[in-house]
Amino acid sequence: MGHKKNIIIAITGHIITDQRIIRIASSLQANQYNVTVYYRSYFKHQGTEKKTIGPYPFKIKKMTFLFNKGVLFYSLFNLRLLLLLLFKRANIYCAVDSDTLLAFTLLSKIKNVPLVYDAHEYFAEVPELENKIRKKAIWHWITQKGVQQSCARYTVSESLALVLSERYKAPFETIRNVPSYKDKDIHIKFSRPTILYQGALNKGRELELLIKTMEQLPEFDCLIVGEGDLSIALREQSKNSTNVQFLGLLSPDKIKTITQKVFFGYNLLDAKSLSYYYSLSNKYFDYMQAGVPSISSALPEYELLNRKWVCGLCIPNTETDLINCLKKYANDHLAYEKLQQNALLASLNNNWEIESQKLVQIYTAI
Questions:
Q1: Element of type H or E holding 297
Q2: pLDDT in tens, 226-242
């Protein structure tokens, strides 16, 4: 058996909230690579970390910082990553998103080690950078330099791959963020029709719209899983809502158990952000894999998938459309069951067992 190559991956988020990286690192580890993932742990994960982290088949290295946002954090993160890895042996670096690219671009140049760029999103065009022209320009510059240095690049959707390829003048492959396939039956639902949102509680996720809509649907329940920049504001907005419940950060297994029991998965996005416009979120496939129909915004990737598989719905981002959609399928059981069956069928063809083969081919070619 040949010598195993060492792959070092870094993320500015927490490993417990990044199912994409867990899948990627696990698949590479299973295919004769030694994988180490550097991640950030900070206060919002206290109380959750010990319950949900690992064990993983790959190595993990925790990084903590006094500052956890803004220019100072990103600067310190990349500086520390550069110093930590300068004298560590690696055969391949994998930068996850533009916020880890600066350190890995320098390391790749200094040590002549191949660099792979994994773009989870259109980083310079995320909602948080809306109207921040100077910051956008800096992130575009960092991304351009990293792309120029990289030998392989991939992202989460075909649409985004095309946009990134055009913007940064280098080809991007597509590795979708799909879960593993598991045999399943349609599970018994919660006693009341329940809408589930899972993911970061951040700007652009249309969570304010969801909470406001639930006020007009007393016969429905809503579960919100995750934390983020809007955690406090959203809880404040819903303080008088008896049918909205925040569950915080949960383990992947716990989320899967809950997902199987809900009526619809929620996936509306504010399309003003180019990153969201071209997105293909992991939650869309998590709902599909659980045999649960989803409600998504009318954006390119979701419209394409729903036309092909008819396992979810694309609607305008309005209270009226969301209310009409939920009430229609709550009253039309045959139509709802058809969406469920289509989701189960789609899960046979959209899973990590298929997608990971493309991932391994990319790294084998390096």
A1: strand 294-297
A2: 998 999 999 999 999 99
